[in-house]
Amino acid sequence: EPEVTQTPSHQVTQMGQEVILRCVPISNHLYFYWYRQILGQKVEFLVSFYNNEISEKSEIFDDQFSVERPDGSNFTLKIRSTKLEDSAMYFCASSLSRGGVYEQYFGPGTRLTVT
Amino acid sequence: GESVGLHLPTLSVQEGDNSIINCAYSNSASDYFIWYKQESGKGPQFIIDIRSNMDKRQGQRVTVLLNKTVKHLSLQIAATQPGDSAVYFCAENGDYGQNFVFGPGTRLSVLP
């Protein structure tokens, strides 16, 4: 069964450093998403991406964040200058369509620890 | 498995019993709802969805009920099994269609 993959599984970085979290969505999917889950809290939407541009973003997704689909398979989330409060699990998801079933397939997540 | 909450409401059920997990959603504009299961150390996994033009939808061993009047969603799991132990989240699509808002989650523990 096809699945969303994410690398690395765990990233430790120092405050102020840039990090890039990588995702390989399911190959025939068209919509891509990033979510985060701070320890002990609920899953929060960050951004959705379609046709090589951001379609929706939340208030969390400020200028420190960016997303990119650099090639036909990868989907990345960049945090330009990490803060302690960016420590969380980051989940990538993808879905085939938007107008019908929104079924989003989630990856296993990347745990980001900012020290 | 640190990705799930430490202070979640917990529902404990005996193996074989039915489970009912409840969720109150916040936005009356939401027209699409999903239940997710999150096992320890994994990402959320789609279980079942329902649109606002329905009040009930059944899947394999799961049923989702939607009450738009009181903005309430429930997930019923029949004959609960040990593999059902996980945190369950409801999510609503809110004002923008894809900006899914997740609920706080309920931890389901299945007792042998």
Verbal overview:
The complex is a heterodimer of chains A (115) and B (112). Chain A has no helices and 11 strands. Chain A is an all-beta fold. In chain A, strands 2, 4, 5, 6, 9, 10 and 11 form a 7-stranded mixed beta sheet that branches. In chain A, strand 7 and strand 8 (75-79) form a beta hairpin. Chain B is mainly β. Chain B has strands at 10-14, 19-24, 32-38, 45-51, 56-58, 62-67, 72-77, 86-92, 101-102, 106-111. In chain B, the strands form 2 sheets. In chain B, strands 1, 3, 4, 8, 9 and 10 form a 6-stranded mixed beta sheet that branches. A 4-stranded antiparallel beta sheet of chain B has the order 2-7-6-5, with no helix packed on it. The radius of gyration of chain B is 14 Å and the shape is globular. The model of chain B is unreliable at 1-6 (pLDDT under 50).
Please describe the structure with a list of short key phrases separated by commas or semicolons.
heterodimer, A: 115 residues, mainly beta, seven-stranded mixed beta sheet, four-stranded antiparallel beta sheet, B: 112 residues, six-stranded mixed beta sheet, 49% strand, disordered N terminus
Radius of gyration of chain B, Cα only, in angstroms? 14 Å
What structural category characterises the helix and strand content of chain A? mainly beta
Distance between the termini of chain B: 21 Å
Unreliable spans of chain A: none
Class by alpha and beta content of chain B: mainly beta
Q: Rg of chain A, please?
A: 13 Å
Low-confidence stretches of chain B: 1-6
Count of β-strands of chain A: 11
Number of helices, where a helix is a run of at least 4 consecutive DSSP H or I residues of chain A: 0
Helix/strand order of chain B: EEEEEEEEEE
- Shape estimate of chain B: globular
Q: Determine the most extensive contact between two protein chains.
A: A-B, 29 and 29 residues
* Overall strand count of chain B: 10
Quaternary state of this entry equals heterodimer
What's the helical proportion of residues of chain A?
under 10%
Straight-line distance between termini of chain A: 37 Å
Order of helices and strands of chain A: EEEEEEEEEEE
Instruction: Report the helical percentage of chain B.
Output: under 10%
Q: What is the overall pLDDT average of chain A? A: 91
Query: The biggest beta sheet of chain A, please?
Result: 7 strands, mixed
> How many DSSP helices of chain B?
0
